[in-house]
């Protein structure tokens, strides 16, 4: 099977994005690294999920500040998220994928999808 891969500019709807065939999963790796981009990211994800209501956005991110949160933006864009425990897919190791980043880093994985009309 073919898997389409397109580059995205968060917050912008490109012709490639408009003509994208239906999707099941949207992958994003460490996209939540600058709070000024959080709404643009979720706006784009919302657009894709509205076109594909059963789809999910799977993303990993490094926790950089306890003060940063996307909860209010998830509510604004009628989205919900759920954390995926790293141990559920053996990703709770110190040197995952031969990574040798200095220091200790907290990595999380979450799945974002459309919230139901009742907010769940």
UniProtKB/TrEMBL annotation:
GO molecular function: methyltransferase activity
Record GO biological process: methylation
Annotated signal peptide: none
Taxonomic superkingdom: Eukaryota
Pfam families: Methyltransf_16 (PF10294)
Entry keywords, A to Z: Methyltransferase, S-adenosyl-L-methionine, Transferase
Protein's UniProt name: Methyltransferase-like 23
Organism expressing this protein natively: Charadrius vociferus
């Amino acid at each position: 099977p073919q898997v389409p891969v397109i580059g995205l500019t968060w917050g912008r709807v490109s012709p490639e994005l408009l003509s994208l065939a239906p999707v099941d999963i949207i992958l994003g790796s460490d996209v939540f690294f600058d709070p000024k981009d959080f709404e643009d990211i979720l706006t784009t994800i919302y657009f894709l999920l509205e076109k594909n209501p059963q789809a999910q956005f799977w993303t990993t991110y490094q926790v950089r500040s306890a003060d940063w949160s996307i909860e209010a933006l998830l509510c604004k864009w009628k989205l919900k998220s759920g954390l995926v425990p790293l141990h559920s897919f053996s990703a709770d190791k110190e040197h995952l994928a031969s990574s040798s980043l200095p220091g200790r880093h907290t990595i999380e994985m979450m799945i974002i999808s459309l919230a139901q009309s009742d907010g769940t």
